[in-house]
Every structure is written in structure tokens, then in C-alpha cells.
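Archive transcription. Copying these from loose printouts into the bound notebook so they stop getting lost. Printout 1 of 2:
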Amino acid sequence: MSRLSGEKSMVQANIRISVAPEKLKEILQTFKAVVGPIRRERGCISCNCYLDIEADNSICFIEEWQEGADLNAHLKSVRFGVVAGAMKLLANEAVIRFHTIASTAGAEAIKAARACKT
């Protein structure tokens, strides 16, 4: 049982990878193929893949899950197996972080911060 499976708060998974230039297209195609199916998994809030504009051939794969049990189930899934398999082909090890999120705010937080006179 993972540490995350009992977590009832939202969990964000961040995977940052550096890809050899000749493998970039292949890795992006692999991630593109799994993003849609991952989004349909139980508990998935979002799943996105981004290219870092400041680091050549660096990809950030970000998933948000309603709770740790949903993420834990996903980590055991065939779709995450595809992501994990793609990461094994990399020369450098991926940087993987899981963040527990207790609360979120939107534009109202910016308004409130900018309106506050300190």
C-alpha cells in the first residue's frame, strides 16, 4: 500500500523528464496517446503534458487526482505502465514528485492579494 492511498486530499503528480532530441517526437506521441484515456480514469481531475520553453527537450507531465486512492489505482494501471515504460528509455532518470493539495483558489485570490494594502 502506498503512502498516497489513504490521502483524502487532492494529489498532484509531476513527472519531469529530459529527452534526447532524437527521442522527443516518439515520447510526445506516446504521451499524447495516453493523456485522453488517463483523463477518463476514475478520480482524474486533469492530465497534461508540457514542453519546457527554457530547457531543451524537457517535458513535464502533470496529473491531478481527487484523492490518493485514485492516484494509487492509476499507478497500477496499464496506461501508467506505458508512461513508466517510456521513462525507462531515457538516458536521465525522471524527476517525480507527488504533492498533496489541501485547498485551491482561483482569480479571487489574486484580486484579494492585490487589493490588500500592506
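Printout 2 of 2:
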Amino acid sequence: MTKRYAHVTPILVGAVPGLVYDQSSGPMSHILIVEDDRDIAELVERYLVRAGHTTDTLGAGDRALASVRIRVPDMVILDLMLPGLDGLEVCRALRRDPDTRALPIIMLTARSEESDRIAGLELGADDYVTKPFSPSELVARVGALLRRAQRWAESGRMALTCGPLELDRERHRVTDRGQDVHLTAKEFLLLEYLMQHRGRVLSRDLLLTDVWGYRYTGGTRTVDVHVRRLREKMPYLGEAIDTVKQFGYRLAEPGPSDDRDGRPPRSDRR
């Protein structure tokens, strides 16, 4: 069956209402574009190359996985609807492989339903862009995600702790009572941000700005999905992350029992 897409309209930077772009210079990276619509793939490639990145373009999911096994890119831009192995299956396979578990992934989708977007986030995609989209917006999101990955690499060896959890920036590793916890790149950055701001109430908009790298009016469901995944993967956070109704989240400050029994302070348990 031939896939049909709405036309992708090149929109100038700043033309998307509610989005504030951060296009400060950063290290250029190699990006794998997995998109079977040639016109869309060439458009994305043209804008990324113009921004200084190098790219490879593939039109099938199985070919993408084979390519990544040979050379791991700095990021994958992944279409949801691909012939054969679709984007969700590719994303799942990348997250299962220790060598690509933390590989940044931005998913492209022609579907506007929230359930489709959430499905990609649940499998570990770090961001999504709905077609038709602005190529300039996509480049801005690519840059924001890559800059944060570079910041981790330049931050030096430094561990953050929270009860039984330890986050090692240099090794991009999180452990819970000494056992490895496998997180996506965005989950790792969100946990790092919460641990750096323990005790503070953080709005969803603030988290979008500081963790995702852009500010968008609405669309905060992305934050909720990632917080839920952190709670599911690390039971300690199920109680330590407090939901502030209609506003955002707060990671409980350390208390007398915080490091002793691996449980949040009593005053913060729900």
C-alpha cells in the first residue's frame, strides 16, 4: 500500500507559534535519517547539511538496523511508518541493544493521534515531530538534543545520588542499589535535572525548556510520559517524585531515612 503524507512545508525559523528556538552553535554530528518518502528525506537532509551535520539516508527499517551495527550515528531521525520493519520496531530494537540504548532518537510521524505519539515515547524515543513539519524546527530540536548530549560528555566524572540511586554522568550510567537501570537519553537527562534541583517545584513548561531544549505552549504530555517511565523503572521514584497538581513535579529533598533504607522522607510519601 502506498503511504500518503500531507505536504511538508518549509517554514522559516520562528514561524511556528509558541516555539522558541535555540540555534546557538554546537558540535556538528553524524545523523542517520530513516525515511522512505524520498522528498521528505531529501528535505530533512538538505536542512541538516546546511546546519553543518553529516547524514546518511535509508528508506527501510531493517537496513537502518544493519547500518547502525556497522557505524553508530550520533542521532537517528526515524519515520514511524516504514516498509517491513516499522519505526516502532526499529526503536524497540535500538533500545534493547546496549550499544545504542542511549542513542538519541527523534521520531517523525504523519499521525496526529496522541496514542501514536505516546507509543513512540513509551518505547524510548526522545522526541517526536508530526508531519507536516517545519524543517527549521526539526533542525532546532536536533541541535538542542545534541548539545545536551555534548554537555554530558564535557561535564567530567561526577555522580549524583538520590536514595539508592546513583547517576554517573561520565559513564552515562544509572544504578539502583548497585543494579544497572537502562534509560533513554532523554530519561537520563530528565532524572539528572530532577536530581540537580531536589526540593524545587518544577513546572512542565520549565522542564520542556531546560530538558528538551525548547519551549512549546501545550504538548506537556511528553513530560508526563517520561516521568511515568522513570517511576516505573525505579520504584524509589514512585514516591520520591511528587506530582504538583496542574503544575509539575518535585523530587523530594533528602531526609534522615533517605540513604539508610532507600525510601523517600516520610513527609513526602503519598
